[in-house]
Amino acid sequence: MYRDPETAGGPGAPSRDVLLVSAIITISLSVTIILCGICQWCQRKLGKRYKNSLETVGTPDSGRGRSEKKAIKLPAGGKAVNTTPVPGQTPHDESDRRTEPRSSVSDLVNSLTSEMLMLSPGSEDDETHEGCSQENLGRIQFSVGYNFQESTLTVKIMKAQELPAKDFSGTSDPFVKIYLLPDKKHKLETKVKRKNLNPHWNETFLFEGFPYEKVVQRVLYLQVLDYDRFSRNDPIGEVSIPLNKVDLTQMQTFWKELKPCSDGSGSRGELLLSLCYNPSANSIIVNIIKARNLKAMDIGGTSDPYVKVWLMYKDKRVEKKKTVTMKRNLNPVFNESFIFDIPTEKLRETTIIITVMDKDKLSRNDVIGKIYLSWKSGPGEVKHWKDMIARPRQPVAQWHQLKA
């Protein structure tokens, strides 16, 4: 006997199609649960594996300078007649990482690999400094005293701490210049401490033949610089202290925070750029967006800016790209992107150097300012690098102050 399929099961009985759909849904849910369990297991295993294989990074320099004395004799007028010019440890920790959802186990592995290998230094509360314009320049310790019998002012430069990195290698070569303002012609200098962000000098300087009534009219000015053999020394920070506010009857020791140097180095302008890291393609996209308030380098009170982008690996230049030149413009808009191939395992020792130049037809092009981007640069640069890694495949834009 033939029965109609719609009524074969009797009233209320499920049809064949309904049973088939129910079976498919049940099987799909089972497979999903199994895959989720496998993914979670893989994530735990991979996390433990990479966590155990991390290497501790840091090259502390514990060398201390020997105590030395350098002196200049001053006549009754209080002017120096002779000078003796003499030509780091990076904190790091593991920061929280934000990861985006992955569509497969292979993407999860790629994400874990890139993020575990790319641990960035800096404190956990780096984000609290977002939008803060003043950069931490470190601090310096020094002593000052006056010998009334010998009419000699003594200045001892002891040490500095937490200096910012000025070189693309992630460190600095600091030294100190000592002035008694308003006299800028005569100065004394400490030795250069190579690759050291926490240098110890322990050097003593004597200003001999300096009457006390002249001393109290002077301002002790200390300038910390990063020594560069092939170009201009980069200013790191400065400290000034009027000597009429110091008890000079005995040696007084001070810790002073370094302030930005007032030599015009901080007025070179700013550059807006974005970074986009793609771990699956092993590449970084650098987008030079625009600049503002660039320093005028030409006689006419303007500049012809363009931007050079260098990819550095282990202090070696790998690849260079540059934008077009914008004629007579101190607020140029570039909007040019450059792609650099960077394998994940090389990111730790990679630095991107961005230089804003002034184009000259009849002479050498002038440097307006530079930016060093890596996991071991200055605080603002490190923050940008960390944000780029934390948000893969997303352009991360940030303004940077150009430096000398």
From TrEMBL:
One of the Pfam families matching this protein, by short name: C2
GO MF annotation terms: calcium ion binding; calcium-dependent phospholipid binding; calmodulin binding; clathrin binding; phosphatidylserine binding; SNARE binding
A single cellular component GO annotation: presynaptic membrane
Keywords in alphabetical order: Calcium, Calmodulin-binding, Cell membrane, Cell projection, Cytoplasmic vesicle, Exocytosis, Lipoprotein, Lysosome, Membrane, Metal-binding, Palmitate, Peroxisome, Phosphoprotein, Repeat, Synapse, Transmembrane, Transmembrane helix
Biased composition (Basic and acidic residues): 91-101
Protein location: Cytoplasmic vesicle, Phagosome membrane; Cytoplasmic vesicle, Secretory vesicle, Synaptic vesicle membrane; Lysosome membrane; Peroxisome membrane
Residue segments, region Disordered: 54-107
GO terms classed as biological process: calcium ion regulated lysosome exocytosis; calcium ion-regulated exocytosis of neurotransmitter; plasma membrane repair; positive regulation of transport; regulation of calcium ion-dependent exocytosis; regulation of endocytosis; regulation of insulin secretion; vesicle fusion
Membrane topology according to the record: Single-pass membrane protein
Ranges annotated as spanning the membrane: 20-42
Domain C2, first and last residues per copy: 136-256, 267-400
Superkingdom of the source species: Eukaryota
Family: Belongs to the synaptotagmin family.
Subunit structure: Homodimer. Can also form heterodimers with SYT6, SYT9 and SYT10. Interacts with calmodulin (CALM1, CALM2 or CALM3). Interacts with CD63; required for localization to lysosomes. Interacts with APP.
The protein, known as: Synaptotagmin-7
Organism name: Vombatus ursinus (Common wombat)
Gene designation per UniProt: SYT7
